[in-house]
Design a protein that fits this description.
Layout (H helix, E strand, L loop, with lengths): L1 E3 L2 E2 L10 E4 L7 E5 L2 E2 L3 E4 L3 E4 L4 E3 L13 E4 L1 H4 L1 E4 L7 E4 L41
Parallel strand pairs: 1-4, 2-5, 3-6, 4-7, 5-8, 8-9
Antiparallel strand pairs: 10-11
Length: 138
C-alpha cells in the first residue's frame, strides 16, 4: 500500500496511535509513506513495516514512524504543524493547516499529487498531508 499526501490526526480508537499497520500472514506486509502528515503517531505490529519515501512529518513524542528519508521531519511540534479539523471547503471536514505551518511547501516535488483531498489543485511545490493551503476549488 502506498500512502501519499495522507494525514492521520486524532485516534478515536483505543489502540493509541492514529495509524496502525498490522501484518497478517499472506497479506500486506509493507506500506510506503510519501508527503504524509502523521500527527497522531503510528505503530506497526507483527512483521508489518512502514517505509518512508520522504517528505513526511510526525509530531514529536508520538510513536515513531522511523522517518529518515530526505525531506522527512520526524519531530515537529503541534504548534509548528498548525493543523486543525474543520470545514475548509470541498464539501467535507478535513484536517487543514494554516499558512504558517511547517508543512507548507515541505512535500517532496516528485511525490506531489495534482489534487488535495478536496479535489483542489496542488502546485509543484506542494504541502505535506492531505490538505493544500491556498489551493483553488476546481
Amino acid at each position: 500500500m502506498q500512502l501519499t499526501h495522507f494525514t492521520s490526526d486524532q485516534d478515536i480508537a483505543t489502540f493509541g496511535n492514529s495509524l496502525i499497520h498490522v501484518a497478517t500472514p499472506g497479506m500486506l506486509q509493507a506500506s510506503f509513506l510519501r508527503n504524509s502528515a502523521l500527527l497522531g503517531g503510528c505503530a506497526t505490529t507483527g512483521a508489518a513495516v512502514l517505509l518512508s519515501q520522504g517528505g513526511n512529518a510526525q509530531i514529536a513524542g508520538t510513536s515513531s514512524c522511523a522517518l529518515t528519508q530526505p525531506g522527512d521531519q520526524p519531530s515537529i511540534t503541534s504548534v509548528q504543524a498548525a493543523a486543525s479539523f474543520g470545514n475548509f471547503g470541498g464539501g467535507m471536514p478535513v484536517v487543514g493547516i494554516a499558512s504558517s505551518s511547517i508543512l507548507v511547501n515541505a512535500g517532496r516535488p516528485g511525490w506531489c499529487e495534482p489534487r488535495d483531498v478536496r479535489g483542489y489543485g496542488r502546485p509543484p511545490s506542494c504541502d505535506v498531508g492531505a490538505f493544500e493551503v491556498g489551493a483553488v476549488a476546481p
